[in-house]
Request: fold
Amino acid sequence: MRKQYKLVSCTINGKQVEKMVDVRASLTDMLRDDYRLTSVKKGCEVGECGACNVLINGECFNSCIYLAVWAQGKEILTLEGLSGPNGELSDIQQAFIDEAAVQCGFCSPGFIMSAAEILEAGREFSDDEIRKLMSGHLCRCTGYENIFRAVKKTMLRRLGKEKEAEEV
Amino acid sequence: MYVGKKVTRVDAYDKVIGRTRYTDDLCDKSAYIVKILRSAIAHGKVVSMDTSEAEKIPGVVRVFTCFDVKEKHYFPTAGHPWSTDPSHQDVADRLVLTEEVRFYGDDIAAVVAEDEVSAAQALRAIQVEYEEYPFVLDVQEAMKEGAPQIHKDYPHNILKHTTIRKGNYEEAIKEPGLRKVEGWYETPTVQHCHIENFICYAEMEGDRITVVSSTQIPHIVRRVVGQALGVEWGRIRVIKPYIGGGFGNKQDVLYEPLCAWLCMQLGGHLVKIDIPREDTFASTRVRHAIRSHIISWVRPDGTYAARKLEAYSDQGAYASHGHSIVAKGAGAFPQLYPCENVEVDAYTVFTNKSVAGAMRGYGIPQAMWAVECHTEDVAAALGMDPVAFRRQNLMPVGYTDPFSKNELYYDTFNQCLDQAMEAIDYKRKFREYQNQTGEIRRGIGLAMFWYNTAVWPISLETSSCRMVLNQDGSLQVQLGETEIGQGADTAYTQMTADVLGVPLEYVHVVSCQDTDVTPFGTGAYASRQTYTAGFAIRQTALLLKERILKYAQELTRMPPYNLDIVDGKIVRITDGRILMTLGELAAEALYSLNHSQHLSAESTSQIKSNAYSFGCTIAEVEVDIPMCKVKLLDIVNAHDAGKLINPALAEAQVHGGMSMGIGFGLSERLLFDEKSGRALNPNLLDYKLSTFMDHPRLKAVFVENPEPTSAFGTKALGEPPACSVAPAIRNAVCQATGVAVNEAPVNPHTLFRRFTEEGLL
Reply:
């Protein structure tokens, strides 16, 4: 069988790009192989672990079960695009550092992207809601405890609740 | 001073911006892709293989079958230090591809292709003809007369049987008035589930092979690849980048030998083996399922007269870490609750299942399941309080193990119990949850653990370190002991900065190990690294400091004993005056027209001591009896790991271990089909790893009794947090319902059976 290619134009981390892509490729493959955005991790390639999560038009998806050709015309944000041009960290990235929410770091990009989506909602979620919203990700190092702290603290801080954030 | 402080991880920034490179991120895209053909039977022989259709698929480079392995170099895979004594060497029973099939998922052929899709298509196009043999999946069935023989040199499939005999069990049980308490306790096959699957790639340069691998043990991988290929070990170079978790699975040599072998067959072309999740479950390593039988003879006052343990450890199809696992657990049995008369028989037995190897806790989570479930049962049989009964029988202060010379120096067990009980409000909850009725009930339970740091005197303990001073006074530090997510590099940075007397940011720990340049060390396992690397770091930093101060004498005319390095400056200690900065000294040393010197130090510490690490878990649960469901409401782990090098990272380690323990206790089990031997749930959907929603807040508390034998007062913490969680949960369920569940995990399947048997349903 001969390979079939298709031109995919999209915005990745704020930059308009286009490339010929194998129609069978996943968005994970395109981001990793064609654009060398290696924060997009492969842990299962069937949508179970969440390590490959990226934002597509502001919504978090498992990029491993999202075809690359579907990215046509979309705005994609990977972890590489979350920090500023001079390496400035976003609040959620800083919180992952401060709360020791990073260990081996392999699941961290996916978690941070999901957290970014949740935080963009700009509202206060209950503890159970945070757990449910983050439950599409698996982590074997942290027991999720410090990730929970990082997400909840950042959420409260964005809502101006500095005192409550300290108590998490 | 940095040791003891909550210093930020040295690799955290790169990890949160997505810059950290793992094995796959480093592999050039020109790599050939390898897919491994797995046997579709559990036991038998490959008679023939037809690869002709597979080879016609465009993109396929070559198909290698087990029949292409002409030179049969059998190799061991356990990540143990090599022993020059043949009687202490691991069993060499693996080949890169095998004709003899011993489990469903064995490695019988490999497709090499230019891309993933062609490789996958080719796998499906290979026709295999087998001669099938009967197979056996149960560990005790495998020991019976007439059971299928899995390896020819091991009658009754027993890889090893060891015993411990203390006092006289048979005489002791004749004492009048004894109460006999007996139980069978069973733990399941579980898997490590590191989020990065196993991956490696290999390429030749000259006549040498470079293997880049997601491993915990680069120097051991070098040796084993050399053994597997039958080439000089110096021709193998192993590089270990950042890895996405290991938990013991990557303390085994997995597919590095096959990758290197394929690379050699293909003229040294770059080849990559990226194991899919399903194969990681079924065909890398799993935790040994262990079935334990304990008999205790107890006096009415709650003291033990005699005790007996039989443990049957399910090795699966190949020896891997073998008997070491159940032997470690068996060794804990007479020590945690000492008794004058003890008999222990530990068996490791081959079955036609996935291969069992090292996994966080190395036999202790299985042993603590048996021992701590049983301890609860004994206390209940005597009508004694579970805490008071344990306090009465636990290893006493001053206890010394005659073999390892390990000693319990402090009243650690009681201190851990006290702290954990206070943190979770144990006494009030225990009182409130007595004698409940109704469908929804709560309970609180506890379990203790014992864990031995490092592997001396069973095996070699050695660590080597190199420190190189840069022109600006900063330095590189290299160790064979690896960062696998636990935060080792950060701990090493803190230790080095303190001993040398420099600011933290002066210390650059080289995270990547490369066997061509990294000093020898055996790697990440046995919760050994903070303890063992600590010796090498202190010794090497002192050596470097001596050289620096000697050079300082040339520049300052002051004798070294009147000088010190403080905060990166050369200080005259007699008056505290700063004479120069370390950067000024280092630049002068390198560029001096009078006496140029590269200031560095390298040394080896062989460690002939180790240390007990202790603690406990208390768990609070709510049990929905009709639904057969357990909800974990609250949980705390208390640990004495000696002085904590970094309390924030220590706490994070404990959380992760607790999470693994929660899965072990409540949900995880790799199932095998009785009819075929095939793993039934080798994926992250059907294998129930704990998720964000399955945990309450995780609490960790510490008792910091400094370990006297340690270079920094510290000892094991990597594995201990996973050791006592599951039995604590089981004991909480027992308090809630009165039902003792002896088979982990305590999931709805198990509870339905037990609640039915006990008349609750």
